[in-house]
Specification:
The protein has about 750 residues and is of the alpha+beta class. It is globular and about 75 Å long.
Length: about 750
């Protein structure tokens, strides 16, 4: 099956910076420079329009009606929170509403670029006004409030109204820092630097960014999961699917004008050298043993990454300012040989959790799968060990069998999808043979994708954990497990994406071998469950529901204004492998009794209700007395959690069984005895951290990494409850053979 027919991934976020950037050290000179379209972009746009209007699942002509949709979405894409444009700006371009289709077909994109240039002008004006406001001091005794989510608000009608919005925004930023203990001088310095950084990042946008934003306004006006990918975005998409790249093995981050080493991958060229440390700042990059060094101070991070990545076995040189050196410290230059880097952090992983059930312990194997990845190119070439989610999970299941777990939980929370083939083959690990998903093309032709490999990799009980972030391929797998009666689905209703995408390389239409027109990720089919229903809009409904954390009104397929409708088709012919309807009510009863007494679970529900209340109100007071009262209440809640975290864990809490391999690694790199206590303290601090008024890159890198580490180590209440549910299932199956014969698939060797 071709690569383009295998994609069932969620839409990418396309508004970040990508290909063709001018060196960002010239950014300071670009503030007044009007961006213009390139000829190649006009060519890419017209070819994209021909493909989209003819071959999309929801083929829609590029006409005046579509032009109006593009117009509205383009303005919202540029200014989602409606803080820069005013209604007069939209009125100025009212005549353009029905001319954007002509701009594409006529290969003249100056109109959308003119709109963008007005946006840049407004951006500069608003930021300048915000910085000017810092010279005054806000009055926090007034009884006024700030609407922090303006996505659904109306455009400001005039300059006076938009200035008042910015006055309140600056006032809120100031108050947050004041409540965190900063004095006026420090607040002014922090905010002035923050707003200056906003301007600096904005100036680094180039014509490729503008083109990508505009093309996605067009593509997503047809259907939410259709996107235009520029050359660099396309490359990044491939990397995410194959979980590998050729480079040095360092995760980079922009902090002010520096590109900073955020993480060093173990076993990579950077890690093996011993010369690359977290916090080191890259000053310049050179190619080969003696190529000239290119100064990258102030560059966009994707441009720096493009210089550092390169062919396997080639050499790259980095001139770096060590993490512990001051701004005037002496840089060091190191040479690294690029290698193939495997992104193991995003691969499937397993843990074993033990739960007490009376006098016995139940062992539940948890497999976390972040995405349905596959190295398409390696598979096409017939490489023996190509990267594959199904292969990795099969290996982990074999290990869990040897470790004698009683049940297996597949954790698909926030797994946005990936390869459709992987979803089918992963399902095949748990069923003998049979249909997994149905696809319907734009012409109405229905094809059934089936598991054709006999046998099961795991024939014991299984559960699937999902949330609102579980989409596409995740929903195919969860729905198939549910329809076959093969496993219990636990969590909150999934995303609701029931469409299949293809990748179309626009370079095939280009003139000349050097065309770089990008790719279209285009919806070409809708998938259906084997029972005839679809996950489109409705998602997968869990057998046992856990508290819903996500806001369904603003996240998920149903939040899109142009999502495809829910429909049904004829069911496929399949034989259920089991029947869970008899056991689910028993597990639900145990679940409800347990969470009613679980303080951590009740705290989580309180938190969810608190966030829901804030979302609904969508207003925050700018009165200092009111905000201090609210902060005191939050701190009181945090102290209760701290006391709970500091207390001894409940004897009923699932306990993670150490992996022998990990134990060996820890023994080799053993830390002082006090490290465990420090780690626990950091977890408590991270779980209860109050608002410091800062944004991510305004904190020190060490503080940011420590907070992330603490959050990662914090107790996962929902996972623990899902493990409890599967442990309960084991207990019921072991004590009721009739129930076991209905729930578990029949296999001759059982």
């Amino acid at each position: 099956m071709k690569k383009q027919m295998l994609l069932a991934a969620m839409s990418l976020a396309i508004l970040s910076a990508y290909a063709g950037a001018a060196p960002a050290d010239k950014a300071a000179d670009k503030s007044a420079e009007a961006l213009k379209p390139a000829a190649q972009q006009s060519q890419a746009a017209v070819w994209a329009s021909r493909v989209l209007s003819r071959y999309h699942y929801k083929a829609t002509p590029l006409d005046d009606a579509m032009s109006e949709k593009i117009f509205d979405r383009y303005f919202k894409s540029l200014d989602a929170e409606k803080l820069f444009f005013v209604q007069a700006d939209l009125d100025k371009y009212a005549d353009a509403k029905q001319k954007l289709d002509d701009a594409i077909v006529g290969e003249n994109l100056q109109l959308p670029f003119n709109i963008y240039n007005v946006y840049q002008q407004r951006f500069a004006e608003r930021i300048a006004y915000a910085r000017e406001l810092l010279k005054t001091k806000p009055d926090f005794t007034l009884d006024e409030s700030y609407q922090y989510d303006r996505e659904k608000a109306e455009w400001a009608k005039d300059e006076a109204e938009v200035k008042d919005l910015w006055r309140k925004r600056v006032k809120n930023d100031w108050l947050r820092l004041k409540l965190a203990g900063k004095d006026d001088k420090a607040i002014r310095e922090t905010l002035d630097k923050r707003y200056a950084n906003y301007m600096s990042r904005s100036r680094k946008l180039n014509n490729e960014d503008v083109f990508q934003i505009f093309m996605n306004a067009y593509a997503m006006s047809i259907e939410p999961h259709t996107n235009y990918l520029g050359p660099r975005a396309s490359e990044q998409f491939d990397i995410q699917m194959r979980l590998s790249l050729e480079g040095i093995g360092a995760v980079l981050q922009s902090r002010e004008d520096y590109t900073v080493i955020r993480e060093v991958v173990t076993g990579s060229p950077a890690g093996m050298s011993g010369k690359v440390k977290v916090g080191d700042r890259i000053m310049a990059v050179g190619q080969g043993e003696s190529g000239p060094l290119t100064d990258v101070l102030g560059w966009r991070i994707d441009d720096v990454v493009a210089l550092i990545r390169g062919p396997k076995d080639s050499t790259v040189r980095l001139q770096m300012l060590p993490a512990d050196a001051g701004p005037d410290g002496k840089p060091v230059t190191i040479a690294l040989v690029r290698k193939k880097i495997s992104m193991e952090e995003q691969s499937a992983k397993k843990t074993i959790m033990e739960v007490r059930d009376g006098s016995v312990k139940r062992r539940v194997g948890v497999i976390s799968l972040p995405t349905f990845y596959m190295d398409f190119e390696a598979r096409r070439k017939g490489e023996k060990d190509f990267k594959s989610a199904t292969r990795d999970v099969a290996r982990l299941l074999a290990e869990l069998k040897k470790e004698k777990v009683d049940n297996v939980l597949i954790d698909l929370r926030n797994n946005g999808g990936g390869s459709l083939t992987e979803a089918v083959e992963l399902t095949g690990l748990f069923i003998d043979r049979g249909p997994v998903v149905q696809q319907r093309s734009a012409e109405g032709k229905v094809e059934v994708e089936s598991d054709t490999v006999p046998g099961l990799a795991w024939d014991g009980p299984v559960g699937v954990l999902i949330n609102r972030g579980s989409a596409s391929a995740s929903e195919i797998f969860a729905a198939a497990m549910q329809d076959y009666g093969r496993g219990i689905v636990i969590g909150e209703p999934s995303f609701g994406k029931g469409t299949v995408q293809t990748l179309i390389n626009l370079d095939r239409f280009g003139q000349g071998d050097k065309s770089r027109l990008g790719e279209l990720k285009m919806t070409i089919a809708q998938f259906f469950r084997i029972n005839g229903g679809t996950t489109q809009l409705r998602g997968v409904t869990p057998d046992i529901k856990l508290p819903a954390i996500a806001d369904a009104d603003n996240f998920g397929e149903s939040s899109y204004d142009n999502a495809l409708p829910y429909t049904v088709i004829k069911p496929a012919v399949y034989i259920p492998a089991g029947e869970v309807k008899d056991i689910v009510p028993l597990l639900e009863k145990k679940h409800q009794a347990r969470v009613a007494k679980d303080k951590d679970f009740q705290y989580l529900i309180d938190d969810i209700n608190y966030v829901k209340k804030q979302r609904k109100e969508n207003m925050i007071s700018l009165n200092e007395t009111a905000r201090r009262k609210e902060r005191d209440q939050q701190e009181q809640r945090a102290k209760l959690r701290e006391a709970r975290l500091a207390a001894a864990p409940s004897p009923d809490d699932p306990i993670m069984v150490p992996d022998p391999k990990e134990g060996l690694k820890q023994a080799v790199s053993a830390k002082p005895a006090g490290a465990k206590a420090a780690k626990q303290a950091a977890a408590v601090k991270g779980a209860s951290r109050t608002d410091d008024g800062l944004q991510g890159d305004e904190r020190s890198l060490a503080a940011e990494l420590e907070a992330e580490k603490a959050a990662k180590n914090a107790k996962d209440v929902l996972l623990n409850e899902a493990v409890h549910i599967l442990a309960d299932e084991v207990g019921l199956l072991k004590t009721d053979t009739r129930l076991a014969s209905r729930v578990l698939p029949y296999t001759p060797d059982r």
